[in-house]
Amino acid sequence: MTESVQHIDTLARRGIMFILSSPSGAGKTTISRMLLAADDQIKLSVSATTRPPRPGEEDGVHYHFVDDAAFDRMIEEDDFYEWAHVFNYRYGTPKGHIRSGLKDGQDVLFDIDWQGTQQLFQKDQQDVVRVFILPPSIAALQRRLENRATDSGDVIESRMDRARSEISHWDAYDYVVINDDVDECFAKVRDILAAERMKRQRQTGLIPFVRELMG
Ligand SMILES: Nc1nc2c(ncn2[C@@H]2O[C@H](COP(=O)(O)OP(=O)(O)O)[C@@H](O)[C@H]2O)c(=O)[nH]1
Ligand SMILES: Nc1ncnc2c1ncn2[C@@H]1O[C@H](COP(=O)(O)OP(=O)(O)O)[C@@H](O)[C@H]1O
């Protein structure tokens, strides 16, 4: 009779707060969407923002699009894990059920800037994994923003102006991936997530398993 072999990926484990940051246009939304489509163990933290929706963005899916008064109310009611001013708008991570989900092994994907990353790390260091995505060049970044065609010329110019200042926070991240070929970048981000899921201190199910082995 074959023994029932316990695989490490079926043992109970603690969830991960998996953060992707990058300068605007470097590809973090693209990589996020690829990850969400390919991996059913991770779900997106849908942020609230006062930025108007871009073509194709759906309220409640890509963002919770709110006005300033609603955003102020969410701050007053302490609804946010973190929030920040980014590019003349405000963005924030609703607390939701993130903390309870982590205990149940639910991984959460965050597409947030360096300010939000810093705040989450200060609050939940052991659960946070920080990945920074870089463009292969400034010229490629500009081209991608233009080709994405979701922002006006002025907005693109202001985001390019901010790119260097955003890139300057690269060394506050655990991992850095250059997004030259998008499939290669995606494969590397998936490898990072797979390895972090295997980290011993997240494998809560290992303790009884090893106790059993040791008899
Ligand atoms: N701190 C923080 N930053 C966020 C949040 N949601 C999005 N951002 C960041 O805000 C910046 C602008 O996002 P967006 O307007 O979607 O533009 P994009 O960077 O061109 O995709 C990006 O750096 C996002 O990572 C959030 O909830 N909190
Ligand atoms: N490796 C890549 N090569 C070429 N274009 C890319 C690559 N990665 C993303 N893009 C494109 O660049 C634009 C910006 O990507 P996006 O994911 O919106 O960036 P961000 O979320 O970081 O602002 C999009 O049109 C996207 O399809």
From TrEMBL:
<dbReference type="GO" id="GO:0005524">
    <property type="term" value="F:ATP binding"/>
</dbReference>
<keyword id="KW-0808">Transferase</keyword>
<feature type="binding site">
    <location>
        <begin position="22"/>
        <end position="29"/>
    </location>
    <ligand>
        <name>ATP</name>
    </ligand>
</feature>
<dbReference type="InterPro" id="IPR020590">
    <property type="entry name" value="Guanylate_kinase_CS"/>
</dbReference>
<dbReference type="InterPro" id="IPR008145">
    <property type="entry name" value="GK/Ca_channel_bsu"/>
</dbReference>
<comment type="similarity">
    <text>Belongs to the guanylate kinase family.</text>
</comment>
<keyword id="KW-0963">Cytoplasm</keyword>
<feature type="domain" description="Guanylate kinase-like">
    <location>
        <begin position="15"/>
        <end position="194"/>
    </location>
</feature>
<dbReference type="InterPro" id="IPR008144">
    <property type="entry name" value="Guanylate_kin-like_dom"/>
</dbReference>
<protein>
    <recommendedName>
        <fullName>Guanylate kinase</fullName>
        <ecNumber>2.7.4.8</ecNumber>
    </recommendedName>
</protein>
<dbReference type="Pfam" id="PF00625">
    <property type="entry name" value="Guanylate_kin"/>
</dbReference>
<keyword id="KW-0418">Kinase</keyword>
<dbReference type="GO" id="GO:0004385">
    <property type="term" value="F:GMP kinase activity"/>
</dbReference>
<keyword id="KW-0067">ATP-binding</keyword>
<dbReference type="InterPro" id="IPR017665">
    <property type="entry name" value="Guanylate_kinase"/>
</dbReference>
<dbReference type="GO" id="GO:0005829">
    <property type="term" value="C:cytosol"/>
</dbReference>
<dbReference type="InterPro" id="IPR027417">
    <property type="entry name" value="P-loop_NTPase"/>
</dbReference>
<comment type="function">
    <text>Essential for recycling GMP and indirectly, cGMP.</text>
</comment>
<keyword id="KW-0547">Nucleotide-binding</keyword>
